[in-house]
Amino acid sequence: MSTVSADLVIVANRLPVDRVEQPDGTMGWRTSPGGLVTAIEPVMRANDGTWIGWPGGTDEDLEPFEADGMKLVPMSMTQAEIEGHYEGFSNATLWPLYHDLVAKPEFHREWWDSYVSVNRRFAEKAAELASEGATVWVHDYQMQLVPLMLRELRPDLRIGFYLHIPFPPAELFQQLPWRRQLLEGLLGADMIGFQLPGGAQNFVRLVRQRVGHKTHRDLVYLPDGRTVRAAAFPISIDAAGFEAMARSEPVAARAAEIREALGNPRKVFLGIDRLDYTKGIYARLRAFSELIADGHLDVEDAVFVQVAVPSREQVEQYRILRDDIDRLVGRVNGDLGRIGRPAISYLHSSYPREEMAALYRAADVMVVTPYRDGMNLVAKEYVACRLEDTGALVLSEFAGAANELRQAWLVNPYDINGMKSALLDAYSADDRETRRRMKAMRRTVAQNDVAAWADAFMSELAEVPGSHGKAVRP
Ligand code: G6P
To answer: Any transmembrane segments, and where (predicted)?
Structure first.
């Protein structure tokens, strides 16, 4: 397979497929679940794109290959790079800093050095593969230095960057010893996309204050005559795809089976998250369990199904969180459960998308309560799967999705009593009320799907004034 001269190159920390061991012991590939892959697949196909990324744990060198018709270029990482770039600077410095300091970020110079060198390798690979005047689309917080490094190597390229997580207020970002390098790294792009207008505004303000460039609204004017645009492009899901999956016979049957296995309670509450301290899992389970302890809910009537997808397990904060939640679930079920009736049905595992769709179909109240979240696609997936306009969504005000899903029961996840009343309201809301809300949210999600997101980003990237490179079809 030839990977030379791609007109579109995607650069992301991860490839859209994970390397997995198959039952016969050989290694194979499995499409990673998640929004990024479905989001970018259509643009990749239309433009014969090439995707550069890390295939997961291994540090062996793998050849470029094709999967589901996508050209993939695996980038290996050494153990030291995994510890410095991935677990360290990306997930123990930037992740907590960009999520409102929900955990305390750590600043270590060796981590930064590793972040710089991994970004450089990815930039060099993109420079090698991109054709003359190609478009390169760089993704997320693990790769913020790639735009400038790439521009220095290949001034002919058109470069877009998209940040999938929140961009913090200046007061927080300022703590970073390498704040200026990160801002300048991003400014190597022609356009920088954020989830929300607030993130774009935070960025422009920081550039004005810290780097001293002139700005006007969403534009930054660089001394070399280039213009960089910073704007919001709220990401979404393949709404029609999810809806079709939810409608399918096997998924409908599985949803019924799940309710049956739970003992057919009156109402099923559901949480699905990566096991991450930004997601507010602990507080939400506490709120639910207090409702049972107070006698507002009964385990005969209600159960909380919490799926926690294992994530970043080598990072200390994630291990602590897992222990805390294990202990909480054990205590709640020990204190409040009855035989065959746990208060919380807790699953620490990842599942295929069909199983998620069945869970969404089976759940009466979906509970999404992050302390801070760029968007949160689970909220949108739930809405897409509610074919009959039934079901209630309890949603944190601090998830990007709250900007669009205004008809959810919105909560402040720091306010446990507020969450308790929202859970109870959602539980006891009448049919007319839930339908009215769900119907409106379903319309929003159907109209603003992931194809619309990718189209908007690509066509606006092609129009940034002063941009180099030729346009790529959205
Ligand atoms: C978030 C980030 C992604 C990341 C994903 C999974 O959604 O925005 O960049 O890939 O989490 O995390 P992981 O560390 O497993 O890649």
So the answer is: none
